[in-house]
Amino acid sequence: MVLEAYADHLFLDSIAVHPDVHGRGVGRRMPRFVDAHARALGLPEVRLYTNAMMWENQDLYPRYGYEVVERRVDGPHDRVHYRKRLLRGVS
Prior knowledge:
Elements: E1 2-5, E2 10-14, H1 26-40, E3 45-51, H2 55-60, E4 67-74, E5 77-85
Parallel strand pairs: 2-3
Antiparallel strand pairs: 1-2, 3-5, 4-5
Protein backbone atom coordinates (compact mmCIF):
# COMPACT_ATOMS: atom_id res chain seq x y z
CA MET A 1 0.00 0.00 0.00
CA VAL A 2 1.30 3.45 -0.91
CA LEU A 3 -0.39 6.48 0.66
CA GLU A 4 0.37 10.17 0.15
CA ALA A 5 -1.01 12.82 2.50
CA TYR A 6 -2.02 16.20 1.08
CA ALA A 7 -3.55 19.21 2.81
CA ASP A 8 -7.13 18.22 1.94
CA HIS A 9 -7.04 14.45 1.31
CA LEU A 10 -5.18 11.17 1.55
CA PHE A 11 -4.23 9.76 -1.84
CA LEU A 12 -4.22 5.99 -2.18
CA ASP A 13 -1.60 5.53 -4.87
CA SER A 14 -1.30 1.76 -4.80
CA ILE A 15 -2.88 -1.16 -2.98
CA ALA A 16 -2.20 -4.88 -3.40
CA VAL A 17 -2.22 -8.09 -1.44
CA HIS A 18 0.67 -10.54 -1.70
CA PRO A 19 -0.44 -13.83 -3.26
CA ASP A 20 0.78 -15.78 -0.22
CA VAL A 21 -1.95 -14.20 1.94
CA HIS A 22 -4.86 -14.23 -0.53
CA GLY A 23 -8.04 -15.47 1.07
CA ARG A 24 -7.12 -14.40 4.61
CA GLY A 25 -9.13 -11.17 4.73
CA VAL A 26 -6.15 -8.86 4.33
CA GLY A 27 -7.70 -7.13 1.32
CA ARG A 28 -10.94 -6.48 3.20
CA ARG A 29 -9.07 -4.89 6.12
CA MET A 30 -6.89 -2.59 4.01
CA PRO A 31 -9.63 -0.04 3.12
CA ARG A 32 -10.52 0.29 6.81
CA PHE A 33 -6.86 0.98 7.57
CA VAL A 34 -6.76 3.66 4.86
CA ASP A 35 -9.88 5.35 6.30
CA ALA A 36 -8.48 5.22 9.84
CA HIS A 37 -5.14 6.64 8.70
CA ALA A 38 -6.84 9.55 6.92
CA ARG A 39 -8.88 10.29 10.04
CA ALA A 40 -5.78 10.12 12.24
CA LEU A 41 -4.22 12.76 9.99
CA GLY A 42 -7.37 14.88 10.22
CA LEU A 43 -8.13 14.53 6.52
CA PRO A 44 -11.75 14.58 5.30
CA GLU A 45 -11.44 12.26 2.31
CA VAL A 46 -9.50 9.59 0.48
CA ARG A 47 -8.86 9.81 -3.26
CA LEU A 48 -7.61 7.28 -5.77
CA TYR A 49 -7.76 6.43 -9.43
CA THR A 50 -7.70 3.25 -11.46
CA ASN A 51 -7.11 2.40 -15.08
CA ALA A 52 -10.41 2.53 -16.98
CA MET A 53 -9.71 -0.98 -18.28
CA MET A 54 -9.67 -2.39 -14.73
CA TRP A 55 -13.40 -3.11 -14.61
CA GLU A 56 -12.92 -5.25 -11.48
CA ASN A 57 -11.75 -2.16 -9.57
CA GLN A 58 -14.67 -0.14 -10.89
CA ASP A 59 -16.95 -2.76 -9.37
CA LEU A 60 -15.00 -2.94 -6.10
CA TYR A 61 -14.37 0.65 -5.02
CA PRO A 62 -18.05 1.69 -4.78
CA ARG A 63 -18.61 -1.24 -2.40
CA TYR A 64 -16.15 0.45 -0.03
CA GLY A 65 -17.91 3.80 -0.24
CA TYR A 66 -15.99 5.44 -3.08
CA GLU A 67 -17.79 7.53 -5.67
CA VAL A 68 -16.65 8.32 -9.20
CA VAL A 69 -15.49 11.91 -9.52
CA GLU A 70 -14.45 11.85 -13.16
CA ARG A 71 -12.95 9.86 -15.97
CA ARG A 72 -9.93 11.60 -17.47
CA VAL A 73 -7.29 10.80 -20.06
CA ASP A 74 -3.81 11.93 -19.01
CA GLY A 75 -1.46 11.26 -21.91
CA PRO A 76 -1.64 7.53 -22.56
CA HIS A 77 -3.57 6.87 -19.31
CA ASP A 78 -7.36 6.55 -19.28
CA ARG A 79 -8.26 6.77 -15.59
CA VAL A 80 -11.35 6.74 -13.44
CA HIS A 81 -10.93 9.00 -10.39
CA TYR A 82 -12.68 8.24 -7.10
CA ARG A 83 -13.13 9.81 -3.70
CA LYS A 84 -14.52 8.72 -0.38
CA ARG A 85 -15.67 11.43 1.97
CA LEU A 86 -15.10 10.44 5.56
CA LEU A 87 -17.50 11.06 8.39
CA ARG A 88 -16.09 11.23 11.87
CA GLY A 89 -16.19 7.89 13.64
CA VAL A 90 -17.50 5.98 10.60
CA SER A 91 -15.58 3.80 8.16
